[in-house]
Amino acid sequence: MTVDLQGMGREARKAARLLARTSSDQRASAVRAIAEGLSSNTDRILAANGKDCEQATDIGPALLDRLRLDEARLTALADDTRSVADLPDPVGQVMERRMLENGLDLSRVRVPLGVVGVIYEARPNVTVDIAALCVRTGNASILRGGKETRHTNAVLGQVISEALESQGLPAAAVQGIPSTDRRYVRELLRMDQHVDMIIPRGGAGLHRLCREEGTIPVITGGIGICHVYVDSTADLEAAYDIVHNAKTQRPSVCNALDTLLVHEAVAEQFLPGLPARLPGVTLHASPSAAPFLPTASAAEDGDFDREWLSLDLGVRVVGGLDQALDHIAEHSSGHSDAILTGSEDHAERFVAEVDSAAVYVNASTRFTDGGQFGLGAEVAVSTQKLHARGPMGLEALTTYKWVGRGQGLVRT
Fold it and tell me: Quick check: is 326 in a domain?
């Protein structure tokens, strides 16, 4: 299949210009129409997704879990989409305004980014999340999903196009690249005349490809090597519950727990009870943790630099907060890290020194999510520091422009 990607880019740019002059109510109505389309096309979407799941014989259980939709997940996706329509619209917000001495009325105003390109793998929900967030903020988007999702994305693309057109908006506002040929990924990464930002959602290899070959600004993130540190003053019963939630509630996602660090002062009390509290989880113990976990596997080289995306957990005993902070600084991906402690001083030091997009005190890392943060959906979880960091909701899809108003004003 040959794809005219440059033509798609030109159409996306035209659609972005049209969206830029639409009202907030128009864009919200279009997002609600997308949600209604999901609900009214449940059978079509699930049938396509079933075909994708049947053909996905070469992916692991983590990716298969991300790929699979069922009625409950689709209903939740439609509900999340409706919530995006109801969120406050950042577009047009006057961030600051002042009258200069020369008479120029100067404002700084939030505006859409323009055209957003998103490259992702076996995540059909991303198709809907990106469409909803981009339409709500007046951005056009070009989406390239993985080969595993091609049937689901084809139907979702039709549903989204029908919803946009029903509200008088161009279908080109949300376009999916119909081919899974990787040459179109590389071409998209160089379409700086048409695309304003690239967001990759996938593994480290995809992020590296986008950074090395792209001529467009890239927002990287979504790779989680997440830690929980159990301090000597932690409530150990609560710690069991938090660790269980962070590791097992949905192990295939980026904010799931990967490494557990335990203060040596509570290791003998805490670790022997851990296997019973984490049924089905394979523990990979460092030499310092192994004496307290006789049934655990021995941690191998690289285990503490792994995003497991499975029911596996690295465990290490540390000498205290300093060693825990050093371990996190060396191994964390900058996504989500937590301390479980009864010491306010230790909590504040952890918050100050851990350089991650989300840092928690006595709470699970599983909260790093646009919906949980009250942002509606998210386009990604950014682990970089410029423009956006953490779950990227509506505001992260805007930039700003300076608007000066005068009456025949000239500079002297």
Answer: yes
For residue 365, the surrounding DSSP H or E stretch is none
- Write the CB contacts of 287 (distance below 8 Å, at least 6 apart in sequence): none
Identify the CATH number of the domain in which residue 82 sits: 3.40.605.10
Q: How far is residue 195's CA from residue 15's CA, in Å, rounded to a whole number?
A: 12
Neighbours of 72 (CB within 10 A): 8
State the chain's mean pLDDT as an integer: 94
Name the residue among 84, 76, 31, 93 with its Cα closest to residue 374: 84
Amino acid at 291: P
What is the total residue count of the chain? 412
Rounded CA-CA distance 283/297 in Å is 6
- What DSSP letter does each residue of 50-80 carry, written as one string? HHHHHH--SS-HHHHHHH---HHHHHHHHHH
Residue 375 pLDDT level (bands cut at 50, 70, 90): confident
267 and 215 in a common domain = no
| Same domain assignment for residues 214 and 234 | no
The domain in which residue 285 lies consists of 226-367
Note whether 194 and 65 are within 8 A (CB).
Answer: no
C-alpha closest to that of 377 among 78, 149, 28: 78
Distance of CA 166 to the CA centre of its chain: 29
The answer to the question of residue 11 being in a domain is yes
**Closest by alpha carbon to 304, among 327, 281, 275?**
327
**Residue 122 binned pLDDT confidence (cut-offs 50, 70, 90):** confident
Q: What is the pTM of this model?
A: 0.84
Q: What's the Cα-to-Cα distance from 303 to each of 68, 286, 307, 321, rounded to whole Å?
A: 27, 9, 9, 21
**CA dist., res. 306 & res. 226, Å (int):** 9
**Alpha-carbon distances of 74 from 67, 128, 156, 373, rounded to whole Å:** 12, 10, 11, 20
Residue 217 pairs with which residues in a beta bridge? Answer: none
Q: If 0-12 CB within 10 Å is exposed, 13-18 middle and 19+ buried, where does residue 297 land?
A: middle
**Helix crossing, 71-86 with 42-55: angle to 10°?**
120
List phi, psi (to 5°) of 72.
-65, -45
pLDDT in tens, 209-258: 888 889 999 987 778 899 999 999 999 999 999 999 999 999 988 999 99
CA distance 40 to 75: 10
